[in-house]
């Protein structure tokens, strides 16, 4: 569910909303090359925001289902912690492998919607946000601990 959320979030923002702020985590060269765009067609922004809202519901649902299942099966703190850590680490790994390696470095995904970046994207960009990913992996530990603690209260 989390991978579907993450892809729909990207797709809604890049393909439909097409707001430059969705590229804030992209490499600087890509961010600078992306122009401000008007709607591709009437209603595109609305479709994009609906996709993004649906993606956020999927994200919340994944954690609610994970918590509910753990409570139903009498998970202890460590079991909840490991479950949430696997979920978030899996999502971050998906970001690295699918978004960075596949979509940014080895596909035509971004140039399809933004032809201006065709000559900029490529394998040389892989790892541009290494520090951010490391920070996420570290920050997820206390987040998972807090979620696990909250779930053990039920």
Estimated structural class: mainly alpha
Tally of helical runs? 6
Overall spatial form: globular
Measured on Cα atoms, how large is the radius of gyration? 18 Å
What is the rounded distance between the termini? 24 Å
Listing every helix as H and every strand as E from the N terminus to the C terminus, the arrangement reads HHHHHH
Average pLDDT level: 91
**Number of beta strands:** 0
How would a crystallographer describe the biggest sheet? none
Helix content: over 70%
Beta-strand percent range: under 5%
Low-confidence stretches: none
Write the topology of this structure.
Layout: H1 2-17, H2 28-33, H3 44-72, H4 77-105, H5 109-113, H6 130-152
